[in-house]
Amino acid sequence: MSALQHGNSGGAPAGFQLDKQNGKLMGVCAGLADYIGMSPLAWRLIFVAGTLIGFGSFILIYLAIGLLAD
Predict the structure, then answer these.
(1) Which InterPro entries does this UniProt record tie to the protein (predicted)?
(2) Kindly report the CA angle at 65 between 7 and 17, in degrees rounded to 5?
C-alpha cells in the first residue's frame, strides 16, 4: 500500500512498529527506540535489568510486545 493509503506522508511512522531490520531478536527494542527516540542499547539494558530485578516478568512483556505489535 502507498503512504497515502496509510495516512502517512512518508515521515516518521504513525505509530509503534517493530524494527526487524535493525533488531536483534524480534525488533522490539529497536522499534521502541525508533518510536521514543532513544538508543536501542538503552532499551535492551532496560529489559535486561527489568528481567533480573523483576524475576523474569519483563520477558513476558517483551514477548507480548513482540507478538502483538506486528
Answers:
(1) Phageshock_PspC_N
(2) 25
Model-wide pTM > 0.85:
no
**For residue 22, what pLDDT is reported?**
84
- What's the whole-number average pLDDT of the chain? 82
CA angle at residue 47 from 63 to 33, to 5 degrees? 90
Q: For residues 33 and 43, is the Cβ–Cβ distance under 8 A?
A: yes
Residue 35's identity, in one-letter code, is Y
Q: How far apart are the C-alpha atoms of 54 and 48, rounded to whole Å?
A: 10
Q: Are 56 and 18 in contact (CB under 8 A)?
A: no
